[in-house]
Amino acid sequence: MSDREQKRERKRSTDEQEVVDEVADPEAGQEVTERIDDLLDEIDSVLEENAEEFVKNYVQKGGE
Amino acid sequence: MFDVDNAPEAQSTREHRHTRYHGELMAAIHKVIGTETEYGIAVRGQADFNPVLASSMVVNSYAGMRAKIQWSHEEESPGRDARGFGPEGGIMPDIDGGLVNVVLGNGARFYVDHAHPEYSSPEAYDPLEATLYDKAGELIVSRAAREAEPLLEDGKSLLLHKNNSDGKGNSYGSHENFLLARQLPFSDLVDYFTTFLVTRQIFTGSGKLGSENGRPAVDYQITQRADFFEEEVGLETTLKRPIINTRDEPHGDPAKYRRLHVIIGDANLNEVQNLIKLGSAGLILMAIEEAALPDNLRLARPVESTWQVSHDVDLKKPLELAEGGSATALELQFRYLEWAQKYAESTDLPVAYNQVLDEWEQVLVDLELDPLSTADRLDWTAKRHLLLEYQERDGLAWDAPKLKLLALQFHDVNPEKGLYYRLAAAGRVRHLFTPEQVEAAVVNPPERTRAYFRGNAVRKYGPSLVAANWDSLVFDTGEETLKRVPMMEPLRGTKELVSGLLDSSHDAASLLEALGDE
Fold it and tell me: Which domains does chain B have, with CATH numbers?
């Protein structure tokens, strides 16, 4: 295996390790869910009002 | 399937180059890079607003260091074709005469293009700097929008989006520009760059709900732009868009340079994504100039493949190759990466390219493992991840108006409202720059290109500057005739070369006098 391929293998295995760690810890999982809920609530508070109308009115002239 | 591990090795032997260029050896030229972004514009609460007027207000209201000028078209000819059979002469009328144009202290051009405000970054020395100045553009546009608000009726406000489609069949551009050697046969570019552009969409997309322009229905796709591409090669940018754009405006010495105008890319908010997008293209272009790509990996149907890659969010569908067999976009990108790595080992490159190669490799590895694991680096996966979270929490269908709003507001450049910035504030995206570095790029030009001279001319002699172009500045020094300073070399006019001259010239007249003496 070339150096480059070995490096890529390392990049791959590090990623898999991290994924496994996350799944293995149920408390961390719950924390993640709470963090997501907080973020979505925060985003809800800045979203434009009347989604359907807003999206319908968003019409651009072509450009370039 | 195309075998990534057993494809031909990159050749960079003199013999190989001799074959390609009939004995003429050539070294890649330094990749000066710039981006152009047309921002989507809307007035909240006024569906029938005039986009040209609104764009003019935005550009006019920018309170930062700037000079309002005429943009001179004498050296510009967007109708000229790089293949050599374009319209004769190529002199365009001064179409921007009535519209607003400013040159900024950081060397950028900020103006009204069609019905959008457009920020054209200053010429950057490397892809990292190009990414920084593209990011500075977001701040400039968002501040200009805020500063324009007093001009609107009460209760109205401006919305600016760094996106490329309104979801209703209208697209506007995000273009990348790379300095190329004139002697590179344009046909080589078409041959060797097309498949790279088609397959790189897996990391250049900003994500879009649905499809447009008559393409097959999808829930979500990788890019905003793919649906609008209909030709392999051509001059157009507004209809029948081509994968390889042949516009031949070098903005520099035409005997030595081309400027490759890459129109098949999305505007990206994520800094890492922009670095990979600009840096990988720069590397591949240098490798093409040096004939270091051993295979053109030609696709059987490049245009259809463009749509297919964008529509395949799982990155699994193979593309048919012209020489037979097939490969996925990801497999082909691994091949380009490997060739770029070999090329980089064979030559001296600006240090930013090491970071490009690392990030490019990691993003491909992660896309292969799980596309959503790249949500910290790629807009298309960040947006998809967010939409999936909303779907899970609120039980929304892909065509729910709320999802459409989320997908649109992702691109809002107002830092309080834009969802990319909300994700960033929550620590979900990676940065390459500190806020202080971005602030500095709003004000100061790059130091290693001619943008240094342009930006400092604005900062120091702004009131005397009457016209500008990428490759010249025109001053009014109070004499009978205007004085034009050509800047045909993108890597001159740097801090190293002109800071002494600028320091010792207290006004435009003394600058011109000093230049005349040289």
Answer: 33-436 (3.30.590.20)
